[in-house]
Design brief:
Blueprint (H helix, E strand, L loop, with lengths): L1 H16 L5 H37 L33
Amino acid sequence: MHKVISFFREVRAEFKNITWPKKDTLIQLTIVVISISVIVSLILGGFDYIFTQALNYIGTKPVPQINTNILPTEAPTPVFTVAPTKIINKTK
């Protein structure tokens, strides 16, 4: 327990040695950090968009064009067939 109390006394002594920045300096540094964060996120977002588009371009097959000017005159009728069944009589 003595080590824990000694640790907190040392922490309090170190806090007295800290030189805190003035309000104007703090505001300026906050603006710098936010600006750099926005710039880096825009750059990374741009690279992500470019790579995603490149991979989509590489991975897709060309779609054949369908001529929509030719319409069928009559819709095809579906044909249903039933397979014949074989009945086996096993009574003796």
